[in-house]
């Protein structure tokens, strides 16, 4: 009996263990078709692993456990999908090769599920989204120009493309909207047949200028992916698409996916792809994916660090494209991405700057940005606007983006933008408006007095932009290294004021190429039929490098194809015009070369704009003017002397004189407009404060030569003179002054008084007052070559 009982107990125990094992296996692995409804609201409990093996259309899906994809074509439809556990379809090592369509539905903008609104695929807490589709080529370029009306294109590399794929071909003219979406009908080698003819020419050419190779070839991006995340049909009607959101604690790794009809127009935080305050997120990424026909940006990285965005294609959106939101985002890698057809928000939502949309909006310099292409925005390709401190939900006064060194900006391309290729300026204020900002990276960002760290923008190519290829405003001696600029209204524009120059070096700047673009019939065209960057003002001159603010220097660079014609003027080197602001007299050029180019063109002077009237460009080694040390000046009698040589094709003079820049400011509450500046030989000019600051003037004088200022009112009680550049060189100025009861200081220390006018012919800073004629004579010298502040005050 005892033996039988033992056998019976053992059998019972084995049966119980078997049942438990079966039960555990059943609980751990379930199929959707065998365990869950295909409609309604569904929750996958924690601990359950469910295989999605059928088509489902739900009101909502909450994943507390794990949902994985069966190896078959699938569709999942829901108003929203919240992942607290894991949603996985393929892995990086074993990608999902079938088709998965995730359709997000809904039309109620007031619905708000756990802070994510509605119509979302989202994760938070410890949730994970792992979607890994078929590895496909992201984008390539044309191998030859594709003409209007053609239905065949030649690609550099068509490997992996196949019939039925949707592609987009970038614009290569001044209009971002000339990007064209087509379906591939057939592929033969690197030749692709399209299902429809092209409406525009898409250029491709590789041209050699001296040692430089310039490539202007339309990018071709693959839009089709086998994992599709899309908004429903209502999305197109109202611009109310779906969105994917990774919140703090959640994790997102997505590759080989297509985001279609996503983003919710004008709504903060509702973008096709969005990391929202996810903090430090190494290992997370979006790569080798596409974002197509979005209603609100392409993606946003918000309060998130160390993610990777790589080899993505993003086409057609409203507002900024790839977006770093608050200025705190650091350590992210943005590489190999293509963005095109980025449209301005007409109502200024979600932020004011979206009215001037950029393909890449970078608000913190501590990120890697390399090998990306901005192939067409209504405004700007790359907009680097660094706030003083992070703003929005990331606001803090312990982080200094504007003073943070540039981590890496290299090998990027920008073209077909309505304004600029690269814009380093215009950071957001706390209210999300933008304002003029000087980027000034420092060794210690928290210490504004620490050493400057020059930002280097390397191997940047920018072409077919209606305004500047590059606009750069910086205090920290920026460097444009090995850049290539072509077919822009203006190649590069420095807006910086510092004791040491910013540089453009080892670069190529081309006025016009063989790429004539696609001008509309009604546009005014250039003499050879090409589109003009400013068709509305066809006489605007085409310029290479514009000298402004400064000092700045261009060296070891080549300029090509800058020639004037009957339609408009052109010059490789120019100044900002019209310009009421200060221009350094220490800006210079060295080791320049020219191919088929008018070296200089200065636009005619206009009244009240002393910035261009007193601009000076110095030729350091003779490669610009033919004689080292010569200065190029406009047709201004105060600057031009008998030993200058007129250059009619430049609308300029070449002079052997050395010039010193001076700023005069009064505090009398009256305008200085009408002040007369007269040289000792009688040559004179009328000054004007056209910059909207009536109490200050900017001008230049010939070094160590006496000049007289005749103010339009009696000398004020207080005046300041700022003398710029050229260490040890003197600016000589005199003005009527009613009394000898005054003090003159240099940085607060008393300036020595000369015993006679002759003592002002040499030596350092000093002054002489002549009581007989009530004239104050000044000799202003800078010991350092930087700017110096002189102040004249009487009781």
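^ Assign residues to that structure.
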């Amino acid at each position: 009996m005892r033996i039988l009982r033992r056998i019976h107990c053992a059998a019972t125990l084995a049966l119980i263990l078997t049942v438990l094992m079966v039960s555990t296996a059943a609980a751990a692995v379930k199929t959707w078709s065998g365990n869950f409804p295909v409609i309604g609201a569904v929750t996958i409990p924690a601990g359950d692993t469910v295989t999605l093996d059928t088509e489902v259309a739900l009101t909502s899906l909450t994943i507390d456990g794990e949902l994985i994809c069966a190896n078959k074509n699938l569709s999942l439809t829901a108003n929203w999908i919240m992942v607290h556990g894991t949603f996985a379809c393929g892995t990086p090592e074993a990608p999902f090769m079938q088709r998965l369509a995730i359709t997000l539905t809904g039309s109620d903008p007031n619905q708000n599920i756990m802070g994510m609104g509605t119509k979302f695929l989202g994760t938070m807490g410890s949730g994970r989204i792992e979607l890994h589709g078929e590895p496909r080529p992201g984008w390539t370029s044309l191998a030859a120009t594709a003409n209007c009306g053609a239905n065949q294109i030649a690609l550099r590399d068509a490997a992996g493309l196949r019939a039925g794929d949707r592609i987009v071909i970038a614009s290569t003219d001044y209009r971002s909207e000339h990007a064209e979406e087509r379906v591939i009908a057939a592929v033969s080698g690197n030749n692709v047949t399209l299902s429809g003819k092209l409406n525009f020419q898409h250029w491709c050419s590789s041209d050699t200028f001296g040692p430089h190779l310039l490539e202007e070839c339309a990018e071709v991006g693959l839009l089709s992916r086998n994992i599709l995340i899309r908004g429903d049909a209502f999305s197109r009607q109202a611009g109310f698409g779906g969105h994917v959101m990774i919140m703090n604690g959640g994790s997102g790794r997505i590759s080989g996916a297509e985001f279609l009809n996503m983003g919710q127009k004008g709504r903060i935080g509702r973008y096709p792809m969005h990391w929202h305050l996810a903090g430090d997120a190494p290992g997370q990424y979006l790569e080798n994916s596409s974002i197509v026909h979005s209603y609100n940006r392409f993606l946003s990285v918000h309060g998130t660090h160390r993610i990777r965005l790589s080899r993505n294609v993003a086409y057609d959106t409203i507002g900024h494209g790839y977006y770093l939101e608050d200025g705190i985002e650091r350590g992210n890698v943005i590489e190999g991405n293509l963005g095109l057809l980025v449209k301005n928000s007409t109502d200024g939502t979600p932020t004011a700057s979206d009215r001037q949309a950029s393909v890449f909006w970078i608000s913190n310099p501590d990120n890697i940005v390399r090998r990306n292409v901005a192939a067409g925005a209504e405004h700007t390709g790359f907009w680097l606007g660094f706030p003083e401190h992070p703003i929005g939900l990331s606001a803090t006064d312990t982080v200094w983006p504007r003073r943070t060194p540039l981590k890496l900006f290299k090998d990027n391309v920008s073209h077909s933008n309505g304004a600029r290729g690269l814009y380093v300026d215009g950071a957001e204020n706390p209210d999300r408006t933008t304002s003029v900002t000087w980027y000034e990276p420092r060794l210690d960002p928290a210490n504004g007095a620490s050493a400057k760290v020059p930002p280097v923008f390397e191997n940047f190519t920018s072409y077919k932009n209606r305004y500047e290829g590059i606009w750069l405003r910086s205090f920290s001696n920026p460097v444009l290294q090995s850049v290539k600029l072509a077919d822009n209204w203006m190649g590069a524009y420095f807006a910086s004021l510092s004791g040491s120059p910013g540089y453009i070096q080892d670069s190529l700047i081309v006025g016009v190429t063989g790429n004539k673009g696609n001008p509309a019939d009604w546009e005014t065209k250039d003499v050879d039929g090409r589109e003009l960057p400013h068709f509305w003002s066809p006489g605007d001159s085409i310029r290479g490098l514009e000298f402004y603010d400064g000092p700045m220097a261009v060296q070891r660079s080549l300029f090509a194809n800058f020639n004037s014609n009957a339609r408009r003027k052109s010059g490789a080197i120019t100044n900002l015009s019209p310009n009421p602001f200060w221009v350094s007299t220490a800006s210079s050029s060295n080791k320049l070369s020219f191919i088929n180019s008018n070296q200089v063109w200065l636009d005619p002077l206009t009244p009240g704009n002393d910035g261009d009237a007193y601009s000076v460009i110095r030729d350091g080694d003779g490669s610009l003017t033919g004689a080292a040390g010569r200065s190029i000046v406009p047709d201004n009698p105060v600057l031009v002397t008998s030993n200058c040589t007129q250059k009619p094709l430049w609308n300029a003079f070449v002079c052997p004189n050395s010039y010193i820049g001076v700023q005069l400011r009064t505090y009398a509450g009256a305008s200085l407009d009408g002040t007369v500046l007269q040289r000792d030989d009688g040559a004179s000019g009328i000054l004007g404060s056209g910059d909207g600051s009536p109490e200050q003037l900017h001008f230049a004088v010939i070094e160590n030569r006496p000049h007289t200022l005749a103010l339009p009112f009696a000398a004020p009680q207080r005046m300041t003179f700022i003398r710029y550049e050229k260490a040890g060189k003197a600016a000589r100025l005199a003005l009527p002054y009613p009394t000898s009861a005054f003090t003159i200081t240099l940085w607060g220390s008393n300036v020595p008084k000369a015993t006679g006018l002759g003592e002002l012919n040499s030596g350092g800073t000093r002054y002489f007052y002549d009581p007989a004629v009530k004239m104050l004579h000044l000799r202003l010298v800078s010991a350092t070559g930087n700017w110096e502040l002189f102040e004249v005050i009487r009781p």
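The chain is about 5% helix and 40% strand.
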